[in-house]
């Protein structure tokens, strides 16, 4: 779930994609070849479905709040709990990191999520994304450099 959420940034859509992944695993179980780890196969399917959802999202109509009527804009705001300064800073940093990851090009975003968030090995990542090991290492390094540059003001 966390892996898919890192791609989509939406809990509800992530749950849908995870459910679709499980269905696809069941439907296509006879295609699994034991030459690869089962987890690698799962991540590959989840990544492909998450990318499909991102493409669908780009085609969907987005309603801007300022274009909505007054009645449409009225909704109940959730209660705000008081937080300490450190909690606010930590939440802000986490949100900035998530935004920076989502801003990365797709080929960088995929490998950085698999390596630094899901903590998969370079070999597993290579199998999931279908590129040579050296390419995976290069993409991870470039993604980290880009994130470091984008987040330099958080130090």
From TrEMBL:
GO terms for molecular function: DNA binding; sigma factor activity. Gene3D superfamilies: 1.10.1740.10, Winged helix-like DNA-binding domain superfamily/Winged helix DNA-binding domain. Pfam families: Sigma70_r2, Sigma70_r4_2. Keywords: DNA-binding, Sigma factor, Transcription, Transcription regulation. This is RNA polymerase subunit sigma-24. One of its GO terms (biological process) is DNA-templated transcription initiation. It comes from marine metagenome. Residues 97-147 form the RNA polymerase sigma factor 70 region 4 type domain. Belongs to the sigma-70 factor family. ECF subfamily. Residues 2-60 form the RNA polymerase sigma-70 region domain.
